[in-house]
Amino acid sequence: MSSGNEPDQRPTDEELAAMSREELLRLGGKLDGVEIVEYEDPWPVKGTKAEKRAERVVALWFLLAAVAGVAFFVALIWWPWQYEPPSNSDGYFWYSLYTPVLGITLGVAVLAISVGVLVYSKKFIPAEVSVQQRSDNMGKGSPELDRKTFVAHLADAGERSTIGRRSMIKRSAGLGAGVLGLGAVALPVASFIKNPWADANGPDSLAHTGWQPEFPGQIVYMRRHTGDFGEVSLVRPEDLDAGGMETVFPFRESERDDHDALVHALKRSDNPVMLIRLRPDDAEQVIKRKGQEDFNYGDYYAYTKICSHVGCPTSLYEQQTNRILCPCHQSQFNALEYAKPIFGPATRALAQLPITVHSDGYLIARHDFIEPIGPGYWERKS
Description:
- The chain has helices at 13-18, 21-31, 49-78, 89-96, 98-124, 143-160, 167-189, 259-267, 280-283; strands spanning 34-40, 127-132, 220-224, 233-234, 245-251, 273-277, 300-304, 316-318, 323-325, 332-334, 340-343, 355-357, 363-365.
- β8 (316-318) and β9 (323-325) form a beta hairpin.
- The protein has nine helices and 13 strands.
- The strands form three sheets. Strands 3, 4, 5, 6, 7, 12 and 13 form a seven-stranded antiparallel beta sheet that branches. It has a four-stranded antiparallel beta sheet with strand order 8-9-10-11, with no helix packed on it.
- It is found in: Cell membrane.
């Protein structure tokens, strides 16, 4: 048996240029020590009904991918995506289907492309059985020779797969892949369709949250979520024990009998705030942020629950160390030093909500956050 390390007689450049693809194919196999044992054509008789039926099946899968890709694109842009309260049964039904429709249409598109490729490989790619001797070719070889024989192998594989003469499959595959690619491009682009700065001072801009008063002098209370969306449970200072923490949401008296507004306040992503009551000994060690020295009320401090790293909820508070923890990527913030990051990937302190107590004894927000909450974006100055 040959080891494959014996020197072979190489063709000259002139002989190499004059070789046909079949000759280059045989030469490449010989140089690589490859012996083709079997290379069965799946359709030895061309143009049969079975062959055409198999071609239509492959094309059908690619067309299904194209249809699903179009459906994904249409749903992404035009499906009702804005929140609708459960009280609006018709609007809530269609809103609740937004995410499932995106997942199903995109999943079907990817699945159909994959199945189409698998079916084509099974039905039209020749079943090749080859044996190759292990060889390092004596560490030598001609780059031009390798290139030509490799290209010959690729061209032969393409011809034997019959893809060149199957225009139906090529067109349907191109359509399916193209539409799927369009959906992949539309997914990140869709987030730019709505201009977040169309109303820079409005309650829905990136610079403001639900804690912003709707008009000067409006009182925004701190409300706990009891599990009943319609219940209004306001927070008094005596409700928290020293070292305790509670998640609170904004509430306005104008919302008391408005079930939709009460639900929206609990569901809005930038509304949750972590209200912390420090222990007296810990409160004496607090280092306050410049310009925010009066944002606390005694031992009570309020920080956004939206992590400054990528927007996960900083939902954990470690009483013994006074650390606020983000479970997503393990960022840690020091509650005794204006929620400054001390561990993990976060690089900015959590935004602090200025609070006080109203004359009726309930905790309220003095005004909205003075900086955008959450992760960084291009308008942020720090």
